[in-house]
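Folding problem:
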Amino acid sequence: MASTRDTDADAGEEAFYVGVDFGTSGVRATATDASGAKVAETRVGYGEEEARLVMQSEDVHGVQQTKWHAHETNDIVRGWRWALHAAIVQLPLTVRKATRAICVDGTSATALLVDAEMGVSRSKVAWYCDAQPDVAVAKAREWAPEGHTSTSSTSTLAKLACFVDDGGGMSALDGTVLAHQADVVASWLHGRHGVTDWNNALKLGFDAKALSWPDWLASAPVAPLLPRAVHAPGELVAPVTEEAASLLSLPGDGRCQVCAGTTDSIAAFLALAPASGTFSVGDAVTSLGSTIAIKLVSDVAVEDAACGVYSHRLRLPSLDESSGTHRLSESAAWLASGASNAGAACLRAEVGDDATLARLTDELMARPSPLPRTGLAYYPLPRGRPGERFPISDASKPPVYEPRPDDDATFFLGLLESLSDIEADGYAALRRLGAPAPRRILTAGGGSINAVWRQLRADRSLPVTRGGEDAVSTEASYGAARLARAGVKGAL
């Protein structure tokens, strides 16, 4: 906890900004003060049982107040709700009572249908990496232009088509709206449904250039299920409801705002922004977490569903010469992007826990440098869940872990080589489509600390830095908190 806290100049009192990250492996909440300094951080896994245990162990006020959760029957969504509850109420009470704004990020293309009035789930949850049946993908490709981001097998539009088929057709879904993970979570705070943001809406078909639903989607049979409002990330949406304010000990009476969210990988990107919040064309961030995701600042928008490439629109700060401060610009900045299903989760599943990975890393570091290539052509995807999104889009691509050498360190090295190749191929795909070459790659996620992995990436001519040495935090929740602060103060 910071020893001193800045006050908000406009309010004349302490002010805090909270970001909540719903990532691939759990939920994290980060609070910053008015200057952007991190003052508190909490973490909880998905699931009701773990959230209850965390709250009981912390003797958190409100653990018996289960009415807030009672009307949701979907176990996954109910677990999200409990995780949000636990992550926020573990923040210090003094921070919660002076929180000015909250922003939520979620995994991209994780979605479901919800009741447009009550917000309760009306379908199963389709996760970010879930490839959809051929019939649903065919419908998305019938509606969308060829090569559009929304035509991939894991796109939100393909998931929406599948929801309609599973739900008995459009006539059975009256009063229903599609919601992304971040939308659902934010709605529990501000009470509004059918609200999303530019970034989460992209894989549903949102036109990030025109900032509207395109004509081809507005005339599609599924148009009545589209979110009714699409906001810029960080834009103020609505105040926290009195019910949520009471349960979570947040300010009521409109004093705490909920901002439009973003995806988890964009929040991680924003976490690494310099203190001014400024990035330049060619700056990139690779997130080496459970999966690999890359983001590259580009002067042009690029996309190609065949290789899983898309471009997000984001307002980035520019210098306001009249005030000498950096404020969010209305001009478009593009984040050429892609996300693989391969990543550190496969390392843990195939090699072992963090202690084992650290031991094998030490063994490899002790070998003569440079390390020769193993010649092992692995493709480390989750077992039992085939399919890749980027740098190729192949819903049936299987994992490859053979042949496995007797030496665990060499096996580990082969996996790291393959993951490094995937990243390099990803940036090459962006370049082929017209994006600039990366001039600097900052690195977020647990993989950023592995020296062997970092060297293998550099060996592939990637201009890597670990990233985060000068950053306040490398966590996506900190990036979301910066967006919350930007919603109120206009600067990251």
Remarks:
- The longest strand covers residues 99-106.
